[in-house]
Specification:
Blueprint: H1 6-19, E1 23-26, H2 31-43, E2 48-49, E3 59-61, E4 75-77, H3 82-85, E5 90-91, H4 94-105, E6 113-121, E7 130-136, H5 139-148, E8 150-151, H6 153-162, E9 166-171, E10 181-185, E11 190-194, H7 199-202, H8 205-221, E12 224-226, E13 229-234, E14 240-246, H9 253-257, E15 269-274, E16 278-282, E17 288-291, E18 296-300, H10 310-315, E19 321-323, E20 326-327, E21 333-334, E22 365-369, E23 386-394, E24 404-406, H11 410-418, E25 421-423, E26 435-437, H12 450-463, E27 469-473, H13 493-503, E28 509-512, E29 515-518, H14 534-538, H15 543-558, H16 566-580
Parallel strand pairs: 1-6, 3-19, 4-5, 4-10, 7-9, 9-11, 14-23, 23-27
Antiparallel strand pairs: 2-3, 6-7, 6-8, 10-11, 12-16, 13-14, 13-15, 16-17, 17-23, 18-22, 19-22, 20-21, 24-27, 25-26, 28-29
This protein binds guanosine-5'-triphosphate (GTP), sulfopyruvate and manganese (II) ion.
C-alpha cells in the first residue's frame, strides 16, 4: 500500500530502510484485521486467551517484568533550547538524541512485521481533532490503538486531505531498560520511542501525542491539551452540565468519570465522555469547549469492583485486553480488590503463593473501547465537543488539602492547579507514596516549560466570557490511624452536587484564605457513616500548615525564574497574605 501524502510516504520509506522489517503492514482498522492480530499473538504466546465462557474475547498480555509502567526518567523533550522544555522535563539536544536513537533503531525490526497505523485523536469530523501515524513492530500496540483511537482508513483519508499529522516511530527493541528512550521533538511533530511495549511509553497516541506534543501545539494554536476526564452530570431536573477533572495518574479519573449514583442520590446521572485526556478550546460563544481525543480506556485494574466502579467492572467481562493481571485456576482474570475467585498464577505467570507481593501488578491495566462503557455518552462523538461548566483539580494528599474548595477566580484557579501536589503511584516506575508537585496533573506530560504553560492558561482564561469555575478536591485525606476519612467513589457525587450548585449560584460558599469551602449544611451527608468530627476535619483549613505549604509552593515556583508569569506570583503573594492575617 502507499499514500498520496508525500511526506508520510517518504517517512515510511526512511523508517523501513533504517529498521529493516521483514514486511510492512498498513492498518485499515477493520474488525477482520483486529481478529487476525489477536490470533497471531495467541499463536506466538504474546497474548493468552482468558476463559472464553466467562470472558468472551478477553485476552491477557504479560509484559516484560521490567516494563510495567511509564518510565519518566527515560522520557525526554528535545527542543532546540533547554529552557523551552523547562525544569519540568528531561531534555536532550535534538541532534544528540537522534544520534542515540538512530543507533538503537538501526535494524531493530529484522525478523518482524512493521505496522503503519494512521489514527485520529477526536471525532473523525471534528475541527478540534488531530491525526497521527504510529509505526510500530508491536502487534499488541496495534491492537490497543484499535480500541483506544479512531484508527485506520478514515484517519488516513483525513491525513491525506489535511496534510498534517504527528509522526510516532516505535519499536519494542530488545525491551532492555538500558536501551529504552521515549523522546519528543515537538518542533517536528515527531515522537521516537524504543525499548518498551507498555502503556504511555508505547501507545504513542496517548501521552506522547495527545499530551506532550499536543500541549506544545496547543500553545501556539490557542487551546489546551490536558490530563483530564470529562463527565456529563445530569441533575434530577434533567439539566446536564459538563465537568473536566484533572487528577494525577492513578488518582481517580477513571473512577469519577464512570461514577454511578449511590442509592440515596438516584435522581442524578453521570455520563462518561472521557477518562484521561481532554482537549479544550475557547468557543465563539465565550465558553470553554472540550473533546476527548481518545476512543477507549486504558484503566487501572486493581481496586475495580462492582462497588468501587460498577461501570468499569461491567466492561471487563468481554472484548477487553488485560495487562499484568493474575489468573484463577480456570483462567479468569483476577486482581486485588476483586470480590470473587482466587489467584492461581500471578502477573508474571508464576504459581501464586501469597508470600510474594500482590498477585496482579499494582499498575495492571485494561484496554476497552469506550462504546463498551454503560455510562458512555453520545456527546463523546460530537464534533464541537461539550461546554465545560467546572474544572476540578485534585491530588492524593493524606493531609492538608480539604475535601473540596473553590478558587476565587480563573487566575486563582490557575495558581491552585499549578500548586497541585500528590503522592506518587504505581503508574510510573519509582517510589510510591512520595508527595511531589504535579501541577495540573501534567508533571510527566507537559511538552514545554511549565512557566510558559501557566502563562498560556492565564491567556486562555482572559479569552473566556463565561470561564468555568475552578475547584480543588481531595478524596484521600487520612486520619491518625492512616484510614481514608472520606468514603470516596460513588459518594464523591455529593461533592459534585455542591460544585453544580455553586456553578448555578444556588448556594453560597464559606470564605477561607485558600478559597470558598462548602458551608457544613450545604454538603449533603445524609446517610453517610462518617466518623464524628470527620466532616469538620475534611472541611478545615489549618493556617499554620497552609503557611508552610505556601513556602513550599514558592520554592517550587522559584525554579521557574523570570519566566514565571507575574500574575501567578501576585496570586500566590495575595494568598500568603490572607493566611498571615
Ligand atoms: P491514570 O489512568 O493512571 O491516569 O489514572 P486515573 O486517574 O484514571 O485513576 P483511577 O480512577 O484508575 O484510580 C486509581 C486508584 O485510585 C485505584 O486504586 C482506585 O481504587 C483509587 N481511587 C479512585 N477513586 C477513589 C476515591 O474516591 N477514594 C479512594 N480512597 N480511592 C480512590
Ligand atoms: C497514566 O499513567 O497517567 C496513564 C497510564 O493513564 S499510561 O498510558 O501508561 O500513561
Ligand atoms: Mn493518565
Amino acid at each position: 500500500m502507499s499514500t498520496s501524502n508525500a511526506e508520510l510516504q517518504a517517512w515510511i520509506n526512511q523508517v523501513t530502510r533504517d529498521c529493516r522489517p521483514d514486511s510492512v503492514h498498513w492498518c485499515d482498522g477493520s474488525e477482520q484485521e483486529y481478529q487476525g492480530l489477536l490470533e497471531r499473538m495467541v499463536a506466538d504466546g504474546t497474548l493468552l486467551k482468558l476463559n472464553q465462557e466467562t470472558h468472551p474475547d478477553c485476552y491477557l498480555h504479560r509484559s516484560d517484568p521490567t516494563d510495567v509502567a511509564r518510565t519518566e526518567h527515560l522520557t525526554f523533550v528535545c527542543t532546540q533550547e533547554q529552557e523551552d522544555a523547562g525544569p519540568n522535563n528531561n531534555w536532550m539536544a535534538p541532534g544528540e538524541a537522534h544520534v542515540k536513537l538512530d543507533k538503537l533503531f538501526d535494524g531493530c525490526m529484522e525478523g518482524r512485521t512493521m505496522y503503519v497505523v494512521p489514527y485520529c485523536m477526536g471525532p473523525i469530523d471534528s475541527p478540534l481533532a488531530r491525526c497521527g501515524v504510529e509505526i510500530t513492530d508491536s502487534p499488541y500496540v496495534v491492537a490497543n490503538l484499535r480500541l483506544m483511537t479512531r484508527m485506520g482508513q478514515a484517519a488516513l483519508q483525513r491525513i491525506e486531505r489535511e496534510g498534517r499529522f504527528v509522526k510516532g516511530q516505535h519499536s519494542i527493541g530488545d525491551l532492555s531498560p538500558e536501551r529504552r528512550f521515549i523522546m519528543h521533538f515537538p518542533d517536528d511533530l515527531l515522537i521516537r520511542s524504543i525499548g518498551s511495549g507498555y502503556g504511555g511509553n508505547a501507545l504513542l497516541s496517548k501521552k506522547c501525542h495527545a499530551l506532550r506534543i499536543a500541549s506544545y501545539q496547543a500553545r501556539t494554536e490557542g487551546w489546551l491539551a490536558e490530563h483530564m476526564l470529562i463527565l456529563g452530570l445530569e441533575a434530577p431536573n434533567g439539566k446536564r452540565c459538563y465537568v473536566a477533572a484533572s487528577f494525577p495518574s492513578a488518582c481517580g479519573k477513571t473512577n469519577l468519570a464512570m461514577l454511578r449514583a449511590p442509592l440515596h442520590m438516584q435522581g442524578y446521572k453521570i455520563f462518561t465522555i472521557g477518562d484521561d485526556i481532554c482537549w479544550l478550546q475557547p468557543g465563539e460563544d465565550g465558553r470553554l469547549w472540550a473533546i476527548n481525543p481518545e476512543a477507549g480506556f486504558f484503566g487501572v485494574v486493581p481496586g475495580t469492583n462492582e462497588d468501587t466502579n460498577y461501570n468499569a467492572y461491567a466492561m471487563l467481562n468481554r472484548d477487553a485486553l488485560f495487562a499484568n493481571v493474575a489468573v484463577t485456576a480456570d483462567n479468569q482474570p483476577w486482581w486485588e480488590g476483586k470480590k470473587d475467585g482466587k489467584p492461581s498464577l500471578d502477573w508474571k505467570g508464576n504459581p501464586y503463593t501469597g508470600g510474594n507481593g500482590p498477585a496482579a501488578h499494582p499498575n495492571a491495566r485494561f484496554t476497552v473501547s469506550m462504546r463498551r462503557c454503560p455510562s458512555y455518552a453520545e456527546e463523546a462523538e460530537h464534533p464541537r465537543g461539550v461546554p465545560i461548566s467546572a474544572i476540578i483539580f485534585g491530588g492524593r494528599r493524606a493531609r492538608l488539602a480539604p475535601l473540596v474548595y473553590e478558587a476565587r477566580d480563573w487566575a486563582h484557579g490557575v495558581m491552585v492547579g499549578a500548586s497541585v501536589a500528590s503522592e506518587t503511584t504505581a503508574a510510573q516506575t519509582g517510589a510510591v507514596g512520595v508527595v511531589r508537585r504535579d501541577p495540573m496533573a501534567m508533571k510527566p506530560f507537559c511538552g514545554y516549560n511549565f512557566a510558559d504553560y501557566w502563562g498560556h492558561w492565564l491567556n486562555i482564561g482572559a479569552q473566556l466570557k463565561q470561564p468555568p469555575k475552578i475547584f480543588h478536591v481531595n478524596w484521600f485525606r487520612k486520619d491518625s490511624d492512616g484510614k481514608f476519612m472520606w468514603p470516596g467513589f460513588g459518594e464523591n457525587l455529593r461533592v459534585l452536587e455542591w460544585i453544580l450548585q455553586r456553578c448555578e449560584e444556588k448556594v453560597a460558599g464559606r470564605e477561607s484564605p485558600i478559597g470558598l469551602l462548602p458551608k457544613a449544611e450545604d454538603l449533603n451527608v445524609d446517610g453517610l457513616d462518617l466518623a464524628p468530627d470527620a466532616l469538620a476535619a475534611l472541611l478545615s483549613v489549618d493556617s499554620g500548615e497552609w503557611r508552610e505549604e505556601m513556602e513550599h509552593i514558592n520554592e517550587y515556583f522559584t525554579q521557574y525564574g523570570a519566566r514565571l508569569p507575574e500574575r501567578l506570583r501576585e496570586t500566590h503573594r495575595a494568598q500568603a497574605g490572607r493566611l498571615a492575617d
